[in-house]
Amino acid sequence: MAEAQNIPAGSTTAGSIAVAAESTVATRMSAPPSFDVADFPVPHGREEEWRFTPLERLRGLHDGTATATGTGIKVDIDAPEGVIVETVGRDDARLGKAGTPVDRVAAQAYSSFEKASVVTVPKEAVLTEPVRISVHGEGGTAFAHQVIELGAFAEAVVVIDHTGDAVLAANVDFLLGDGAKLTVVSVQDWDDKAVHVSQHNALVGRDATFKSFVVTFGGDVVRLHPRVQYAGPGGEAELFGLYFTDQGQHQEHRLLVDHNAPHCKSNAAYKGALQGQDAHAVWIGDVLIRVMAEGTDTYEMNRNLVLTDGARVDSVPNLEIETGEIAGAGHASATGRFDDEQLFYLQARGIPAGEARRLVVRGFFAELVQKIGLPDVEERLLAKIDAELEASV
């Protein structure tokens, strides 16, 4: 795999299957963050934040023509004892506290939902079982908002599972009190025709730890925008992700870690595999280190495995640094085709071609999957990867 690491600003490397570049403009959106849809122009695909996205396949989410229809989605929440689950109106003060919409779809989602779900883990509570949130599409168009709030020194794992068929625009907020520890696993296992566009906002308190796993398999178009800010010094954020992009699918993950407080850490690692004609994956990794963020330690990495001809990856890591008083900052982007030598090595030892292929791809993803720490989720994801590979044979 060709790798680009610590590329000088403005330089670009390109190939037939991938683009890796660094610039200081990707963290600057075409319009400032706002809760008002009218503050964002209708995108046309020439804007930096929309240039990879197939707008014509968003079913009107980007231009205001999409309206809530049918049953949309059904949300079920299974929470351990002591966790508070609420359905609240638009006037709840916790909504939007973790972050402001940064594009027109997120603003449209914020302006259009009627009720939001709020899950609260009280301060100092340590959950021994995960909170499980099921978001099931039932064929319509929906706008949604969810809030996960942890009190000071609370610890929790939250699994958000997306299935079914829907056109969904949503915002998900994560509020971490001082010293809190939150692990979130967001699985996009949609049916083939689903469209899912969502902004994830995490506000990490002083000395708090936020760990995110984003897993994307299904859907026609999935465009996710995880964002992290810090409410005080000492916060840590780990953003992990894996995606398997099939024929005709568009899967886009756009990360921003805004180091706006001193002595905070972040680490981002996303891995993807692609197969089939017109499979398209996009990964944008933005890290902004502000002038007040002395002592920052950050690293971001994206690796892609292209299994067949006809697939395309756009991988763009960005660093914008406003202070020299940092502990470390770096990035890496690597994309490569399936390694025939690895297959030959395994086959020479009596392993059939199909099984050898499965072992190589499983090994590629295993490091990230094993970090989740939930055996049932890990087994499900590995089984899904196996099913994806079998479908391509």
Automatic annotation (TrEMBL):
InterPro entries: Fe-S_cluster_assembly_SufBD, SUF_FeS_clus_asmbl_SufBD_core, SUF_FeS_clus_asmbl_SufBD_sf, SUF_FeS_clus_asmbl_SufD. Residues 137-364 form the SUF system FeS cluster assembly SufBD core domain. GO terms for biological process: iron-sulfur cluster assembly. Pfam families: SUFBD_core. PANTHER family: PROTEIN ABCI7, CHLOROPLASTIC (PTHR43575:SF1). Belongs to the iron-sulfur cluster assembly SufBD family. This is Fe-S cluster assembly protein SufD. It comes from Streptomyces lunaelactis.
